[in-house]
User: What shape does this take?
Amino acid sequence: MFSMSRRRAVVLLALSSILLITLDLQGNAVVDGVRRAFGTVFQPLQDAGRVITRPIGNAWRGITQYDDLEAENERLQDRIDQQEGAFIAALATARDAQELLALNGIDDLTGISSITAQVVGENPTNFSQTVEINQGSSDGLRVGMPVVNAAGLVGKVTEVFANRSIVMLATDVSYAIPIQVLNLPEPEPVVTTTTTTVPTTTTTTTTTTTPTSTSTTTTTPLSPLSPSPLTSIAPVVTSIAPVLTVAPPTTQPTPSSVVDINALPAAETGAFRGRGSDRAPIVEFVDQSSRFGEIKVGAVVITAGGSKSLAPRGIVIGRVVKIVERSGTSGAVLEVRLTARLSTLNFVRVLLYQPAVSP
Amino acid sequence: MIEFINRPVVRLTLIGLIALVVQTTLLADLQFDGIALQIMLAMSIGAGISGGSERGALAGFMFGLMFDLVLSSPLGLTALVYGLVGFLAGYANSLAVANPWWLNALIGAGGSAAATFAYPVVATWVGVDGWLTTRVIEVAIVVALANALIVPLAAPVMRWGLVIKRRARLAPPPEIFA
Assistant: This one.
């Protein structure tokens, strides 16, 4: 049925494709250069196209997502009310934590410069999970830099052009990063510490807000699909805040400056990886020490940092929503719900962070 | 200048760039349940229907390569799949003596479904794991239905792109004599 020349043409095309795939997977500089050059030529066309098609896209979203947006708006309003008290306590705790980190010479996220970028393009394919942002190499972005938003980790930069970049989302099957799982302490001690700290933190606002947030979190049992990550983190905030000093700096040193190590959440390392848009990302290879104990649903997952990791320590990724036990020595697999909503990204922050050692 | 524009490579590049702009802007926004329609794939199938299996493979390879250049997936992956689908579309069309619009739609749907299944399979073969999930079925159905509508419109555009004259278009496909 097929003539010889036709068969030869198809075989040649297939071999060319396989050759290109091989070169690209090996990290060929020529392929990267061609990609960059095409991106530079294509960008003005894409920008012009975006100007024309954006109103159509907005109209489409307005039609198809109006009900969802309205419901989400109401839900977010409720969540803002819930979180207001926890936020004030968290501010004080964050300040104290930064002081402690600085005292011990440990870098934290506040010491890392960042650039705000807007998401200007969605993923054009049905398999990889990427978005396009409007900042590029001219703004200091490099491949591998972590991307976050106010809620937590979003992904990492995978392609950089002059004025735009491609960000691989944390749900992409190719995304992987070392993480730490924090088992939150039981909520009982929170109630006791709150009552003991009233004399030391005399007139600060924290004393009035702490009981409110404490009562909320202790009375609400943590369900596997609990939607609010911050309210569940609140026990950590409220348990540490009274122990560390929240009072103005003029007050004399008190025993409250001693950190109760047992009150801090136990942490274990593992590996986080995405599994596509339709499946929850997972954490694997978690070592479980005796102090760490059993992993609980609701445990917080943060980036582990380290000299080879592409992200610094402490970026919130999400919470464990399901634990799948595996036989043998491979350990449990933890399904994670991301705190950042990757389906509705608008503004993101690119941390200008590069590891000390190239991974 | 006119001679330059009349070259199939120039016309295909022009069509490819316009389709790529539409794919990365409009179709990336207009998603159905998180599934983006694939106009580059429709163009590749349209090329196969209009120009036969060989030209369909070449056009598909070219469009796939252009798409690969703006994606973070391995370069050549989409080119391989679109090239093969362009070839198969041309071959399938050559089996019929006439090509009514509904046949183009049928080839468009079948080719799109085949390409949507082939893409994660080839990706897994080259080492990109995780794309071959049950969601592929949902994606294949949506893309196939959409391309059943787009391909009959893409076929005349690709006839212009491949500089196929009316007389040649009305003649029986060369495969029939093979």
In short: The radius of gyration of chain A is 24 Å. The helical segments of chain A are 4-25, 29-64, 66-103, 188-197, 205-219, 229-240.
